[in-house]
Amino acid sequence: MTAHACELDDLLAAAKRAAGELAPTSGDERDVALAAIADALETHAEAICAANERDVRIATERGMSTGLIDRLRLDHDRVGAIAQAVREIVALPDPVGEVTQGRRLANGLEATQVRVPLGVVAMIYEARPNVTVDAAALALKAGNAVILRGGSAAINSNAALVDVMRSALAETNLPVDAISTVDPWGREGAAALMRARGYVDVLIPRGGAGLIEECVRSSQVPVIETGTGNCHLYVDASADLDDACAIAVNAKTQRVGVCNAIETLLLDRATAQTAWEAIVPALAERGVKFHVGPQAREILNLAGYEWVDGDETDFATEYLSLDIAVEVVDGVDEAIGHIRRYSSGHTEAIVAQDATAISRFVRGVDAAALAVNASTRFTDGGQLGLGAEIGISTQKLHARGPMGVHALTSTTWILTGTGHIRP
Amino acid sequence: MTAHACELDDLLAAAKRAAGELAPTSGDERDVALAAIADALETHAEAICAANERDVRIATERGMSTGLIDRLRLDHDRVGAIAQAVREIVALPDPVGEVTQGRRLANGLEATQVRVPLGVVAMIYEARPNVTVDAAALALKAGNAVILRGGSAAINSNAALVDVMRSALAETNLPVDAISTVDPWGREGAAALMRARGYVDVLIPRGGAGLIEECVRSSQVPVIETGTGNCHLYVDASADLDDACAIAVNAKTQRVGVCNAIETLLLDRATAQTAWEAIVPALAERGVKFHVGPQAREILNLAGYEWVDGDETDFATEYLSLDIAVEVVDGVDEAIGHIRRYSSGHTEAIVAQDATAISRFVRGVDAAALAVNASTRFTDGGQLGLGAEIGISTQKLHARGPMGVHALTSTTWILTGTGHIRP
C-alpha cells in the first residue's frame, strides 16, 4: 500500500503525520530503512531505467540540449551509483539527538539543547533524477519527511524512484509517507508547497536563479536559497602568479556549469599586465572567452586573445560556460567593493602573499566561503568533509555554504528540573 | 551630523554600507561604541523622558490601556536601567570570529568556519521604547547594522533614543548609519523593510500574532518568527502533585501576558480528579478563570470554581491573561496529540515521575523548549545563561528559542591553501 494521497491537502497532512512518527525513531531504524532503499533501487533498476527511457525519449523529441539530457539519463551503472550514495549517507553519524550546548544552572535545572529533525522538508529541483534520491535520503537520515517536486522532464523517472523508495519503506517500521512527491500536480504542486504554512517547515529550491527568485518572492514558508554562484578570483599584486594561473584554470575550466566555478577575474592594477600574461594563455588554450571590462581594456594589451567588450551586465552574469569577465581594480579595497556589488555570496577567492591584503579581503567580503590561495571548487560538502550535501546555501540564515545533514535539523531546549519554578 | 536619510531607498543603502564598514571592526571597537551609547542615554535622560512624556500624553488621550501605557512610559530610573542593560551586553563575549568548526583536510587545505555578522537586521516591534535600545545594542554587539520600526505610539520616544544613539556613534569609529529608524515613514517604512531584498538580511517581528503573520505572509526577506506562546502543562498520572501545583501557579500567574506562560492545563484521565483538586485551588485563589473542555466537563467535579465551557477555540487561544483552558487526555500519547495540534511551538511542559512518559513526551512534542518537572517560565535568554535576548524564536530555522547575540550572526568558511586546486 504505497499509493499516494489523491488530494494535495491530504498529501501535506500525511507528510506532517509522518514527520511526527519519524521524530522519535532511532538513528538505527532510519539507517535500516535507508539501506533497504539502497537495495530496492538496485533490485528495481530495470523498471527505473525503463521509466527513465520514456523521459529521455520525450526530452529528445522536444529538443532538450545534450548536456541536460545527460543529467536526465539513467542506466544500470548510474542507478548503482545512486544506491551507493545512499549507503554513504547511512555511514554518516546520526545528527539527531546531538547535544549542541548545555549546562546545569545555579538552581540545579539542567538545560540541554539537542538537535531534532526539522519536520517536513520540501524540495523543488530540476530534471535530475539522482537529486530525487539524494534529497529523500538526506532528509530521512535527519529524521524528516520529504515532499519532492522534480523537473517535469523527469516525471516518469521520479515516479518510479519514489515508488521504489516508498515500497521499501513499507517493509520497515517507518511511515511510507516519509517520502512523497507532488509531481502529479505539476506547477500547482509547487505552488501548494510554497503556501503550505503549518505543514512544510522549509522549502529548498535547487536550480536556476529564476526558480529560486520565484520561491523567495512567493513562498509563505521559510526558504533556503541555494546554488547561485557568481564567484570572483582576485589576483593581488603580491600574488604568486603560478598559483594564480593554476587556480584560475581549475576554478574556471575543471567543470563548467557548476556554481563554484569563477565567473570574473579581477587583476590588481599594479601588476595587471604581468598577471594577464601569466594567467590568460592557459585559459585561452582551454577555449575560455574573455569579456573585458572598461578599466582592463584601457590598461591591458589584449592582442592575440579572443575577447569582447565586457560591462556591468557581464559582471552580474553567472555564465556557467567557458566565458569569463575580466576587470582591473585598484588594489584589494577596490576588489572588495566590486565583489560586494556583484557577488551572489557563494565563494570568493584571493591569490596573494601579502598578509594585510588577505586579512582585508577575508574581513571585507561577505560570502558563504572565502578561498585564500585556493580554488573556489573546494566549496563542496564532500570536499570539506561534511558528507553528502542537499545544496549549497547562498543565504545567511540557518545554514550557509554546503548543507549536509546537520542543516536539515533544528534544535530544542530540554529543561529538566525537580519541580523547579522561576523565582 | 546624525541626520537621517530623506528617502527610504537612501536609508536602506546607508544601512547596507554601514554593515560593510562594521564587518571588519573588532569586538573592542564595538564595545567602546556600546559603552558610549550607554553613557549618552544617561546624559540625555532628560530629553528622552520629555519626548516620552509627549507619547504618553497622546496615548492617554487616545485611551490606551494602563498596561500598555506602563510599557510605554520612561522615567529617569527606567532610562538608567536601559543604559545598564547595554552595559551588560558590552560584558558579553564577542560572537564574531568565533570558530564553529574546522579541520585541516588530507590535502593540507585549512577549512575553518567562523561566525560573521548577519549584515542588516530589521526589527518591527510594539510601543516599548526599551526594545529600541535592546535591539540596537544586540545587533551592534554582533557587528550588524539595525533598522528599527517601533510602534507608532512610541514615535517621539524612539526618535529621541535613536538620535542619542546615533550621536554617540558619531563620536566613535563606527558608522552612524549602524542604527537607523524608518518610523518617520510609518506603515510604508515597515512595508519597505519587508520588500528590501538585497538590503535587509533578516526581519525580526516582535509583537502580536497578527504582526508576525503579516510579516511571514508579505515579506520577501527572511523572517524570524518570535514570541507567540500557546504553552501547555501536562500533568501525568505519575506526577508529584505538589510539583504540579507549584509549576502550574508559577507558569500561569507569576507574570501574566508573557509568551512563556501556560494557556492550557492537560490532566491525565487516570488521575484527573485528584490532580484537579490538588492544583486548582491555588490557581483559583489567584483569580484564574477556567475554560473547561468537553472531556474535562464529563469527568471532573467542577463545583466551587469559576469556570465556563471551553472548546477548540479556547485550545487555540493564547490568552495572555488569568484565563486557562483545561482538558482531560488519555495518557501521554493523547497529550502529545493535543499539543501537536494546538501548540505554537514555544514551550511545552510535563510533570511526571514515570521515565517512559517523560521520554515519550520529550521525543514526541515539537517545540523550542520542553520543560520536564519545571516551569515554562525558564524559557528566557537570561534564565538559560545566554545573556540578553532579542526575542524568542518559535520557528525551526536558524535559531529556536531565546535568541541572544549568536542568533544575530551567520558563518563563513575560510579555506586557506598554498595554491590548492581540486583534483
Commentary on this structure:
Chains A, B: Its EC number is 1.2.1.41. Chains A, B: Catalyzes the NADPH-dependent reduction of L-glutamate 5-phosphate into L-glutamate 5-semialdehyde and phosphate. The product spontaneously undergoes cyclization to form 1-pyrroline-5-carboxylate. Chain A folds into 2 domains: 8-225 and 399-416, 3-Layer(aba) Sandwich (Aldehyde Dehydrogenase, Chain A, domain 1), CATH 3.40.605; 231-383, Aldehyde Dehydrogenase, Chain A, domain 2 (3-Layer(aba) Sandwich), CATH 3.40.309.10. Chain A has 15 helices and 16 strands. Chain A has helices spanning 8-22, 27-43, 45-61, 66-72, 76-91, 129-141, 155-170, 186-195, 209-218, 241-253, 272-285, 294-299, 312-315, 331-342, 355-364; strands at 99-104, 110-117, 120-125, 145-149, 179-181, 202-206, 231-235, 262-268, 289-292, 307-309, 323-329, 347-351, 369-374, 391-393, 401-403, 409-420. A 7-stranded parallel sheet of chain A has the order 10-9-11-8-7-12-13, with helices on both faces. Chain A has a 4-stranded parallel sheet with strand order 5-4-3-6, sandwiched between helices. Chain A has a 3-stranded antiparallel sheet with strand order 1-2-16, with no helix packed on it. In chain A, helix 2 crosses helix 7 and helix 5 (76-91) packs parallel to helix 6 (129-141). The radius of gyration of chain A is 24 Å and the shape is globular. The interface between A and B is large, with 70 and 69 residues. Strand 16 of chain A pairs parallel with strand 13 (369-374) of chain B.
